[in-house]
Amino acid sequence: MSEAVREVNFDGLVGPTHNYAGLAHGNVASMRHGGLTANPREAALQGLDKMKSLMEAGYAQGVLPPQQRPDLGALRDLGFTGDDANVLARAAEEAPQLLRAVCSASSMWTANAATVTPSADAPDGRVHFTAANLQSSFHRYLEPRTTARVLAAMFHDSARFAHHPVLPATPAFSDEGAANHTRLSGAHGEPGVHLFVYGRQAFGGQHGPTRYPARQTLEASQAIARQHGLSDAQTVFAQQNPDAIDAGVFHNDVIAVGNGPVLLYHDMAFRDEDATLDALRARMSTPLIPVRVPSEAVSLEEAVSTYLFNSQLLSNPDGSMTLVVPGECQENETVWRTIQDLLLAGYNPISEVLVKDVKQSMRNGGGPACLRLRVALSSAERQALGGRVLLDEAVHGDLTAWVERHYRDRLAPEDLADPQLAQESLTALDELTQLLGIGAVYPFQLG
Ligand code: SUG
């Protein structure tokens, strides 16, 4: 059975309102690029191209739909009344920051959609999901309700899949999903150890960052481990280095990535590096392969600007691994040299690098790893998936044509109040649910 387990990367489709609004405090790319004109069509096509490359290289690739934006319901909840055009016009006039938030296509970063425990690790033998509350920012707090509906529609067989309540959306349980969760194991079907990295402890604990917010709490990570039935022997909770958060590492996946027994990380990733590795080693049934990149090789600043650690690390059938990096890594001489050194080093299985251009997403602080949610699934679990959500040539072709039919190639901040954009987005998403066969998951379809 473990032979048949494969990791499926579910990438978020970039939504039609992709834009640069400078919404994410502590995410330096988002802060730097706020106000630029975006190209939603290019963004979605870059995402689809990454998915296609991985599919063609033999990896199992899935897709998660975007969300309905602008979220007019959220604006109405905040007191804006009238018809849709009125609501948008009033928001643009009186609270442009709210309009920008309800237009964000941030659900594309599906590493933040949920935390997932594969069936090999869960006591009841099911795959467990908790959609992340994303309460750290208003624009992302709008995501979990629909995320939970989408996950429930896709993973609907309750004999195989378990869905847990989103954690209370309050600072003590601040949860950003799989971006702060790494599963280490032998092959994907073997039992794993779960590394939860948190930025701060709500009740007690040591000091957190001072400049930028810590988005994940220990309490949230512990609650998820409890929900999923994970024991002490299966979990390690490690604090992120607060200095790294203050340098722009707003999630652990900006400074570390794990796959199988490999943990690729920067020396500034953890508050206590040795204790973290020791705790992993004590629990893992297969030897941990730490791949440490020291600050002397790649500075924290370079790690943040190139997103070296926001790579995807993927297992190949022969035991080797491929690193999928954003184009920015190739453009930086030091980082590119470091990657070449990693490929040549004999002690780790990373043997190949694949460079993908996801610049539209990168300008908002989202690299290849942010764009995907990893779900290890047995062949029976893959067969139980609802909808047409696993990528093949036909699905890729349909999605590409769908993007080309519906997406604009230019979206500036002042376009967000355009009622036509809201209409286009609605039409596109309605068609998408049919294309993906996931049923009515959007608020406008639920009536
Ligand atoms: O939450 N950016 C996202 C990027 C998320 C990246 N995800 C991971 N590292 N897993 C965020 O900071 C910016 C939107 C804007 O500014 O328009 C934004 O939300």
Automatic annotation (TrEMBL):
Pathway: Amino-acid degradation; L-arginine degradation via AST pathway; L-glutamate and succinate from L-arginine: step 2/5. It comes from the Bacteria. Keywords: Arginine metabolism, Hydrolase. Its EC number is 3.5.3.23. One of its GO terms (biological process) is L-arginine catabolic process to succinate. GO terms for molecular function: N-succinylarginine dihydrolase activity. It catalyses: N(2)-succinyl-L-arginine + 2 H2O + 2 H(+) = N(2)-succinyl-L-ornithine + 2 NH4(+) + CO2. It is an enzyme of class 3 (hydrolase). Pfam families: AstB. The keyword Membrane does not apply. HAMAP family: AstB. PANTHER family: N-SUCCINYLARGININE DIHYDROLASE. This is N-succinylarginine dihydrolase. It comes from Chromohalobacter marismortui.
